[in-house]
Amino acid sequence: MRPDDEAPEGEADNADYVTFDMAGERYAFPMTRVQEIIRMPTVVKVPLGPPSLAGLANLRGRVLPVVGLRECCDMPGVEHDETTRVIVVDGGVPLGFVVDRVASVISIDPAAMESADSVRSTVNSDVLIGVIKSDGVAMTSVLDVDRLVGSQFDQLAARVGRTESTARVPMSEENDAESNDTLELVSFAVEGQEYALPIDQVQEIVQAPTEVSHVPNAGSRVLGVIDLRGRLLPVVSMRRVFGLPVTELEPQNRIVVVSIKDGVVGVVMDTVREVLRVPHQLVAPLPSFVAGDGRKSEVESVCRLEDGKRLVSVLSVNRMFDSPEVRSEIAEHQGWEEGAEMPAERVADDGRGDEELFVVFRLDDEEYAVDVDAVQEIIRVPEALIRVPRSFEFVEGLVNLRGTVLPVVDLRTRLGLARCDRDERQRIVVLIIGGVRTGFVVDSVAEVARVGRQVLEPAPELSAEQARVVSRVANLPEQKRMLLLVQVDQLLAAGQAEALADVLAEDELVAV
């Protein structure tokens, strides 16, 4: 912030201003504070931010907070049109102000500027530097960039060198112990039957494109290749692996990218269902008399869920692609021959390496993500929830999850978004917060995605609560996506987590 009674050194000698219009009046920013002027970009809405925040935009690979200047100045908002522009200013970090239209760049005699001390305007005088009154120039109010930023975004500050906040939050000892006693799986459906793959064998899950580039004389299992962020990915049909008829690609189809001995391959599934954490005692190896020759051998174990009413067959990636014929087919489409030394970049793609794995879900048309290690499982929303009287507004109720009571929170309400009607796409993402297993209702679960750490950056601190809950952003300009990364341990404050634990304990006592 600059002092109240004087401008920054050098600004008084600079008589260049960028002028713009709002609500029929002329305003200006000092040219020294303007970085560039752009058209209104596509923005990602951020929950828990100030009312003036329009959202976050991607500006040449950089995350740019965009705010409505009308809202900052207590003016009624208007629809954006072809004349709408965003003036990018230096506010400690780059910040974009939405204005009705940009007029021009003017140079004036400093004597033509009248101090804000003598100005009375409908706009709060605290955000005024002064008023330009010059021949040939419409009366123009010059706004103070620093005061505009400070009045709306107390938490907005440069975070250069703050690497601690970008580090991954380590799992608690309790979570470590639990992860050692559970099997993490991604479940999917093929021809109505539920299967699963160990999550450590899954690199990411992406939506199937409308078509796959077919390759002449391709093998029976390989559909073709797709471009995955600049890399040719061979795509195999799970239906062909199982000897089922292949159907046309549809919007619900997903491609599960898995690591195999000789590289990486995408497998088309009918749908991807849930992320499961299954206790090892519920997983049994396939009986020896079943695991004979043929397709059955690709199933290495079976999970018995919901008291045995739901059986999930766990597949082995190595068994699926173990035959020399299949490996040869895949190798041909990866651009290298079997037996040749693999390029170094392909070897690096086999494990997590410099990547993080996230469960991506949607709320109000925006994409959010949580670290996959924090997700216990993902389940459907039951038809009825047990209501909890006099609880928090965002608590939907309680549900019986395999004999234990699970509190369920509406994540839309928790993040200050409007509620929506229940539908078939909604899911409950089960997390552990403050030692309490808690379910959060989301609009839909999109995928499990691997994101390179080089595209992860701290989220702009637009409000205290937003900075705690939405801590980082995954900026993916090539995919025209921006993922808002949610800090799981901040979804509930300490008092809220304790209150939920008390409600849970009381309900379990009543159940006994």
Automatic annotation (TrEMBL):
The lineage of its organism: Bacteria, Bacillati, Actinomycetota, Actinomycetes, Micromonosporales. SUPFAM superfamilies: CheW-like (SSF50341). It is found in: Cytoplasm. One of its GO terms (biological process) is chemotaxis. The keyword Transport does not apply. The keyword Cytoplasm applies. This is Chemotaxis protein CheW. It comes from Paractinoplanes ferrugineus. One of its GO terms (cellular component) is cytosol. Keywords: Cytoplasm. Residues 14-154, 182-326, 355-497 form the CheW-like domain.
